[in-house]
Structure formats: structure tokens, C-alpha cells
Amino acid sequence: MEALYNSDLFSYVLLPLMIFFARITDVTIGTIRIVMVSKGQKLVAPILGFFEVIIWLIAMSKIVQNIDNWVAYVAYGAGFATGNYIGLIIEERLAMGIVQLQIITRKSADVLIGKLKEAGYGITYLEAQGAVEQVGIIYSIIKRADIPTVIEIIRTYNPQAFYSIGDVKFVNKDIASPTPQLGGVMRRWRKGK
Question: What range defines the domain where residue 158 resides?
Fold first, then answer.
């Protein structure tokens, strides 16, 4: 075993691969941890941080032990870049949290508003003066997982609308995915306000 540890195969293939995968793991965990911090997940973020740092320390100790091994440096950098990419993909797939959707329409927003309400989304609508004409502004707070559905409604019923999406850290009411039954409950709740 010691012969393998001191061989070129270990130094220039196995060790760099171990460093590469360690960096992928710790940076992916770190990316998800940052998202958890931004979402206010006080319990999950520190646990992820613990494992992130332990894995990073192991990778760094191997780099320091093999300070003259340039392949390990390349593996370290490649693992960092790949970990960022994988972390962002995982974070996107988790679709955690809620977002604020702002839609600005130049034409009448009545049909779009009707379709969003029909789908069970709560909205706030304002008429405003744009740079050259009157516009309608629609605000909604939705689950991040519902973004593709809402964007499809916008593209179908008002394809020229401008929309932006921003993260929301906290709301004082629970946001639920729309269902036919829930949509009615939400509409009744809003009327009562």
C-alpha cells in the first residue's frame, strides 16, 4: 500500500482526483449553505458549514503535503469551478423559498390578471405612468417552484409583458401552491381583508 502511496500513479492521478472530488463536494455544500443562509435556515446552514469546512481542510492538507504537485493545484481549481456549477444546479432544482413577481404590461392586463387568479395566485394590480404611456403593474408572491407555471401563463396571455423576479426572505402569511380548492379559499381570504 505504501508503494502505491509513493508512486506517480497516486501523486499525479489518484491524489488529484481525490482533491477534485473533495472540492466539488465542499463547494457544492457551500453554495447550498449560502442559499440556506439567505433563506434564514438557522439550523441547516451551520450543519452544512461544518461538513463544508471539514472536507475543505482535508483537501487543503493534501495540497500542503504535496506542495510541489502542480496537477493537484489544477484539480483543486477545477473542483472549485465544478462545485460552483453543480451547487447552482442543485439549488435551482430544489426551488426553495418564495419570490416576488413583478409584471409590467403595456396593454390591458385584465386577461392576464384573470388567468393568474384562476390558477390560484394572489395578485395586487396598480395602474401607473410609464416613460411614454400608461402601464399596469402586477405584483404576486409565489413559491419558487411555481415560477415556470406563472411564466407560461404570462407568455401565453401577455407575451409582451416585462417581468422581474426577486427573492423574498420572509412573508408574514403562508404561501401555498395553488389548487382549485385553495384558489377559492385564497380568494375568499383576500376578499375578507
Answer: 98-192
